[in-house]
Amino acid sequence: MTCARIPTEYGDFQLCYYTNTVDKKEHLAFCMGDLAQSENVLVRIHSECFTGDVMGSQRCDCGEQLHRSMAMVASEGLGVIVYLRQEGRGIGLLQKLHAYNLQDQGYDTVDANLLLGHKADEREYSLAARILDDLEVKSVRLMTNNPLKIAALQAEGIRVTARVSVEGAVNPENEQYLLTKARRMDHLLAPRPGYSAPVSEKKVSEPHAPQPAN
Fold first, then answer.
1. Gap between the Cα atoms of 122 and 181, Å rounded
2. For residue 208, which phi and psi values (nearest 5 degrees)?
3. pLDDT of 210
4. Is 133 assigned a catalytic role?
5. Which of 121, 130, 141, 163 is catalytic?
6. Which of 43, 146, 157, 182 to pair with 174, CA 20 to 30 A apart?
């Protein structure tokens, strides 16, 4: 719909506002540099987390991942953070708060969602792919610890050439959360108390083309 300049501590970004007829939510792209027809663009697909992104909650690593991604994009001078309005892995803020109460009773983040009648993760990434198409990004280096996010974008036709890790610091409030993501959701994490991983980048294999039947 429109874009506007947003000055931040990391530099000037353009914030672009998108509407759609699929989920009828407003999604955002936080952009820096000339993205059109660019290859190997540094990209973060970030799902909204009010508690972490805005309030600085230490129950998760979301806010730290967001700010680390902004700093990494600013360092390169080219990149985009697609901000999807799918709070709480897609279950919404109210249900996420209910899940937090269950976690305080001893359930992990996966079981809490399941007890509330949700899937462990209800997010989807087709709209993120359409935003990247609209920005005319040719290929991406994806800032993520979640291999399912890579597969989801590739399934939508986005060429992912590398995965860039965005591990944050581990604290007593988020340690079990991070361990659950690693053990039960296959996130590429090795959480240890007080640990903050350095940025690393690994190439991503292109999905294999289907073989013709014999």
1. 14
2. -70, 135
3. 42
4. no
5. 121
6. 43
> Would the pTM count as exceeding 0.70?
yes
Distance of CA 118 to the CA centre of its chain: 20
Cβ neighbours for 102, distance < 8 A, ≥ 6 positions apart: 111, 112, 115, 116
Quick one: tokens of 122?
Answer: 């209800």
As averages over each run of 10 residues, the pLDDT of the chain (214 residues) reads 97 97 95 96 97 96 95 97 97 97 96 97 96 97 94 96 91 92 88 54 60 42
What tokens does 93 get?
């803020």
The answer to whether 123 is a known catalytic residue is: yes
**Rounded distance, CA 60 to CA 52, Å?**
7
In the chain, what are the domains?
Answer: 2-86+123-196 (3.40.50.10990)
Distance of CA 23 to the CA centre of its chain: 18
